[in-house]
TrEMBL record:
This is Rac GTPase-activating protein 1. PANTHER family: RAC GTPASE-ACTIVATING PROTEIN 1 (PTHR46199:SF3). It comes from the Eukaryota. Keywords: Coiled coil. Residues 9-78 form a coiled coil.
Length: 151
């Protein structure tokens, strides 16, 4: 009976040793997975920041485009609707400004050139936590002196 207890104890010791080896292997796998997840989180944070920057750039560009379209419309109104005859244009100047009439026809379709916003409310990724801190980001910031304003 004592020999059986010793054999059982030896079997238990071997099982315990295998289990410890598996535990170490799984700890290593977990560490690698967490490291990979951390790297992906950083990439995600950078990508989201880049998307935010691009959205702001797009909004500025669209605002500038709208401003220029208003200026073109004003020029069109002044040049094409001048009934007093105070503005004398040669045929060459009129042909050079012919794009204003084409712009009027195409401006109605300008709203269709925009891409539609992606609806990600049903996405499986929508529950990912999003940390808006920029602790790990190096941002390129321009001073207000460097910006060029065209009126």
């Amino acid at each position: 009976e004592f020999i059986q207890v010793v054999k059982d104890f030896e079997d238990f010791r071997k099982k315990y040793q295998r289990t410890n080896q598996e535990l170490e292997k799984f700890k290593d796998l977990l560490l690698k997975a967490e490291t990979g997840r951390s790297a992906l989180d950083v990439k995600l944070k950078h990508a989201r920041n880049q998307v935010d920057v691009e959205i702001k750039r797009r909004q500025r560009a669209e605002a500038e485009c709208a401003k220029l379209e208003q200026q073109i419309q004003l020029i069109r109104d002044i040049l094409m609707c001048d009934t007093s005859g105070s503005i004398q244009l040669s045929e060459e100047q009129k042909s050079a400004l012919a794009f204003l009439n084409r712009g009027q026809a195409s401006s109605g379709h300008a709203g269709n050139n925009r891409l539609s916003t992606i609806d990600e409310s049903g996405s499986i990724l929508s529950d990912i936590s999003f940390d808006k801190t920029d602790e790990s980001l190096d941002l390129c910031v321009t001073s207000p002196k460097e910006e060029i304003n065209i009126v």
